[in-house]
Structure formats: structure tokens, C-alpha cells
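Can't paste images in this forum, so I'm doing it all in text. The chain is below; anyone willing to post the predicted C-alpha cells underneath?
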Amino acid sequence: MHKTSEMKREEEEEIIRKAQLDISYFKQLYEDYYLNVYWFVYSRVEDNIKASEITSDVFLKAMESIKQYVSKGIPFINWLLVISRNEVNIYYRKEKKERKYFVNSDSILELKEEMEEEEKETISYERLLKILETLPENEYELFHLKHFDKKSFHEISEITQINEVNLRVKYHRIKNHLRDLIMKEGLFATQKVLTFISVLFLFQYLIN
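Text version of the structure:
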């Protein structure tokens, strides 16, 4: 029988309480959440070695701060992801590199399924990904957390420390902006086809 989420939460909080008294119990938290943190980081740096290094830094900082941790009903993993996000930001500030986000194909296909029929027909997988990448960094991060990290608005609010209502408003604006970009893409593609047909027709007219 599967454990209920409430039972899991109680067990998690019990382990945290033990770790706050005896740091050796932190090992259990590390083993439970290592992969979650690693993939969160990797999807933002796309480098195995660097993702491993940052993940290690995340757990080191979490271990050093575990005595100050207060649940407040927030899942422990979200606290770890707050630290992860900060560590990724520090990495990019230090390295001064272009920020990356890894997006798997399944997530893009799921996103396409949520679109209106007209939008789906207008845009290809590759172009949708390219359009997403043109979004400003803070907008793309919100989209990434929502669609690719599969986080609820409440969880995104915990991770980014941005008010949930503001996040919802911002997300709605991003979707409208994205819809406009997609429809413009379709209009541009249609214009290219019409131009090609016109040139072809003119060429045939001239040679005849």
C-alpha cells in the first residue's frame, strides 16, 4: 500500500528533527532528494560535472543551515530548490556565461497540447522551443518551473519568493505574449509561402 502524502510529510519532518539534533541523520535527506536537486540544477546548466558540483554545494549549505530550517508546511524539497536556484544564479554571475535551460521533448509536446488548435497548426516543435528561448530570462524561468519542472504556482512562489497572485498575473501575460509570437510566426510563414508562389508564377509567366 502506498503511503499517503500526510504520512510522508510526517516522516520527513521527523527525519529533519533528528538531523537538527544529530547531523548524521542528514544522510537520509541527502539520499532522498539528491536526484531531485541534481536534475533541477542540470536543467539550468546542462553540464554533468558542474551540476554535480553545484548539487554538492546545495547540500553542504543545507546541512550547515538545517538547524535554522522551519517547515511552515513547506516540503523540504522546495527549501532545497530555493538554495539550488540561488547557487545556480551565483554560478552564472561568477562565470558570466549565457544562461541555459534544458527542455525535454515530452515537455514541449505537452505544452503544444495545451495550445489552441490554430496555434498548434501554426508552430512546429523546433520553432516553439526557439520562441520560448526568446523570452526574457525571468519569464522563461517561470515558464520552465511551471511546465518543465512541473511546479504549482504555490511551489513556484516558495522557490522564487514572489507573491503567488503576482506570479499568476505574470504567467497569464507571458502566455498572451507567447500566443502573439506564435501567431506572428504563422503569419510570417504564410507570407513566405505566398511570396514563393508569386515568384514561381512570375518565373513561369516569363519563360512562356
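The radius of gyration is 23 Å. Residues 187-208 have pLDDT under 50 and may be disordered.
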